[in-house]
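Hey,
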Amino acid sequence: MKNLIITLMLLFGVCTSINAQAIYVCNQSNNADFNSLQDAINQASHGDSIYVNLSHESYGEISITKKVVLIAKRIFTHESNNASAKIDKIILEKIIDDNSDASHSVIHGFEINHLMTIADPGNFVKNVTLTSNQLNYRPNTHSTETWKIANNKKN
């Protein structure tokens, strides 16, 4: 019975990842799906991957209320080499009353000026992967015990 439950959990995980979509964001191009990172997050479904083009302009402040995968990478070639994917502030939310939950999100390759979490008491954002980012501010988060935090640079 235990093996059946594990098999079903793995199968469910594969099925949900197959349905995930790729969304492209560039704040300096009309060729992308979105110019605004927050608009892309708002329109994304749970588990979608959002690829964010490097830019000389900040993507501003964003709020994440669902599981998304954010990956900064050069999508369009019109940018110079010293561009980055800068975010002024990231707010990861887990609010029980409105089912907002950024748990299991991935944030990779960004320059982040401020990172914080918002949660109902005792219901922390869990299992976030935060890798290969430049952190310009010490994260203001509740519990990061379940987070994977690796290869980040701090200013």
